[in-house]
């Protein structure tokens, strides 16, 4: 009896050891492919583009610089969980981990698409076939081809194999709330493998991190419920819907309470400003719909056709049809509310899923040829695929090391360093910024991650959309900038009023005449930045810096009226 008990105990220990070893092996393989894919994909240095908006609240909470005195940093936070992650990491860990988080996100994305490939091939794909898919998938996302496309053709065409319409995307240049869409993508293969509740939970996780995914999440949950109902499992369908409602209720309540309209008029005007002034490229189909958007829609339709008869087909079809229907309703009604719900944002999930489906079918068409190869030839194919992947990863590493992508205006560097070195507690800076002209630019949406940096014309006094990184590069508060915005209606109206006042101010030369220095002091502005070209007549401005491109002026006697959080 004792021998039997001892043998059972040894078997249990051996089983647990095997489970641990298998889990560790899986984790190591995940990290290996995450880093390989991340190198091929690349990411921008901190802090780039939208990070200057979405990291602001978190870095402010972590005590970075004097940002607690910045007006925008004290507005209502649209992504509180992301803010908490940023604040905790910066305060207790290290900012380099922001890069590592994105590597993990890229790893989840890669592993999810590989899992979807396995689902579509019924887990029957041989190693050479699997490696061929990995090569095509990595190549479709590789920064090398995106950089070459931009350099040779002037457009980042490979970008459209992973991005959605309206210049919206899941992955991008680095960590930001939009990457939460990866969890919606990951939910698809998880659901298809029978883990229905886990799939629904992943959908909700993406929404909790970024509430703008609520419509896309709802479409996915409806698709999952439909599949359960079609498989005569009404109880599971109802439980899935109930679970999803419970999981997303905190973010729905937070959004409803924090962003409740202050008045019907303020809400309507704020929605108009967002949809038609600040982000028409995201919110107005007349602005973003072009030939490429049409081709992306066709790409999704092709993928739906290629999975006819598979359980993936109703998922893609339901999400696609609901998105199209709501988009058509928005176009017909021109509703700003519906436009700002972005019913077309589900394309950031559908397009990469469609790319995976199409690449899978391409690889499957090669199976008869690959099966005829000898074992030695199959090994050679795998080695060749591995060499291509290593080449793409190396190319991505070179792009990051040499700064061939994600470039910003180099003429700002010296100015930003000067301000960082000389920033004082009471300082608040006014920048020469304004929004681009309404309706300017071409239709459609393009990625500029691998384009040369936009350099403002030296004949301009106003910089249209520059100085994005001012706050996070210097730790200094600013009065307003053109890109980073609040989302609560009253705060958005205040942002627009500040920006309008700023643009009008820089259009004047004689600041003595209108006693502008007094207005600056009342608004708590201590320093003015101008282009070197602009000549301002003002007895109360003292020049502190001039690098031939930009000048910094201190407002005499400023700072006394500054109020914490309300400058």
What is the CA-CA span between the terminal residues? 80 Å
**Rg, Å, rounded:** 26 Å
**Broad shape:** globular
Strand proportion: under 5%
Spans of 5+ residues with little confidence (pLDDT < 50)? 560-567
Major beta sheet, strand line-up:
1-2-4-3
Helix content: 55-70%
- Structural class of the helices, strands and pairings? mainly alpha
Number of helices: 24
Order of helices and strands: HHHHHHHHHHHHHHHHHHHHHEHHHEEE
What is the number of beta strands?
A: 4
Task: Tell me about the largest β-sheet.
Answer: 4 strands, mixed
- The whole-number mean of residue pLDDT values reads 91
Describe the structure.
The chain is mainly α and 567 residues long. Helices cover 60% and strands 3% of the residues. The chain has helices spanning 2-41, 51-54, 56-61, 80-92, 97-120, 127-141, 143-153, 181-192, 196-209, 214-230, 234-258, 264-278, 280-283, 285-288, 291-306, 312-333, 336-341, 347-364, 367-371, 375-402, 413-422, 470-474, 489-506, 516-522; strands at residues 429-430, 527-531, 541-546, 550-555. It has a 4-stranded mixed beta sheet. A hairpin with a 3-residue loop joins strand 3 (541-546) and strand 4. Helix 5 (97-120) packs parallel to helix 8 and helix 6 (127-141) packs parallel to helix 20 (375-402). The model is unreliable at 560-567 (pLDDT under 50).
């Amino acid at each position: 009896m004792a021998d039997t008990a001892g043998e059972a105990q040894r078997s249990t220990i051996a089983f647990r050891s095997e489970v641990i070893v298998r889990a560790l092996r899986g984790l190591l393989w995940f990290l290996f492919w995450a880093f390989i894919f991340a190198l091929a994909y690349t990411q921008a240095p901190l802090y780039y583009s939208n990070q200057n908006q979405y990291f602001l609240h978190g870095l402010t909470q972590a005590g970075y610089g004097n940002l607690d005195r910045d007006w925008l940093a004290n507005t209502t936070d649209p992504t509180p969980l992301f803010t908490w992650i940023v604040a905790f990491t910066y305060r207790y860990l290290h900012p380099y981990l922001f890069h590592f988080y994105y590597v993990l996100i890229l790893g989840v994305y890669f592993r999810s698409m590989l899992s979807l490939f396995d689902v579509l091939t019924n887990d029957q794909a041989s190693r050479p076939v699997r490696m061929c898919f990995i090569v095509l998938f990595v190549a479709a996302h590789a920064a090398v081809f995106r950089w070459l496309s931009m350099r040779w053709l002037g457009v980042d065409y490979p970008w459209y194999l992973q991005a959605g319409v309206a210049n919206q995307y899941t992955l991008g240049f680095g960590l930001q709330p939009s990457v939460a869409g990866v969890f919606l993508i990951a939910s698809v293969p998880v659901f298809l493998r029978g883990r229905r509740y886990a799939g629904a939970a992943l959908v909700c996780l993406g929404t909790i991190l970024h509430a703008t995914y609520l419509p896309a999440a709802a479409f996915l949950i409806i698709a999952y419920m439909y599949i359960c109902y079609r498989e005569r499992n009404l109880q599971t369908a109802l439980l899935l819907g109930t679970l999803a409602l419970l999981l997303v209720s905190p973010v729905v309540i937070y959004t409803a309470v924090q962003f409740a309209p202050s008045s019907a008029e303020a809400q309507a005007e704020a929605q108009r400003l967002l949809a038609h002034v600040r982000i028409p490229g995201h919110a107005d189909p007349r602005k973003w719909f072009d030939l490429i958007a049409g081709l992306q829609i066709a790409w999704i339709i092709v993928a739906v056709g290629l999975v006819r008869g598979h359980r993936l087909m109703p998922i893609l079809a339901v999400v696609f049809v609901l998105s199209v229907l709501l988009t058509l309703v928005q176009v017909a009604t021109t509703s700003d509310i519906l436009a700002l719900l972005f019913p077309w944002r589900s394309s950031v999930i559908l397009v990469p899923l469609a790319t995976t489906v199409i690449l899978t079918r391409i690889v499957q068409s090669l199976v008869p040829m690959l099966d005829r190869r000898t074992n030695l030839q199959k090994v050679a194919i795998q080695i060749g695929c591995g060499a291509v992947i290593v080449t793409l990863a190396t190319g991505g590493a070179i792009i990051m090391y040499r700064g061939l992508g994600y470039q910003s205006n180099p003429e700002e560097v010296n100015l930003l360093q000067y301000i960082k070195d000389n920033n004082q507690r009471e300082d608040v800076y006014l920048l020469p910024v304004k929004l681009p002209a309404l309706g300017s630019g071409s239709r459609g949406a393009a990625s500029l991650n691998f384009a040369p940096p936009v350099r403002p014309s030296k004949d301009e006094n106003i910089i249209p959309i520059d100085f994005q990184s001012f706050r996070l590069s210097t730790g200094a508060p600013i009065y307003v900038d053109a890109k980073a915005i609040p989302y609560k209606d009253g705060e958005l109206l205040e942002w627009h009023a500040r920006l309008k006042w700023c643009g009008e101010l820089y259009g004047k030369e004689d600041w003595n005449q209108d006693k502008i220095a007094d207005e600056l002091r009342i608004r708590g502005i201590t320093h003015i930045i101008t282009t070197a070209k602009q000549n301002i007549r003002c007895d109360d401005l003292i020049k502190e810096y001039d690098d031939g491109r930009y000048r910094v002026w201190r407002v005499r006697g400023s700072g006394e009226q500054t109020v914490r959080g309300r400058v």
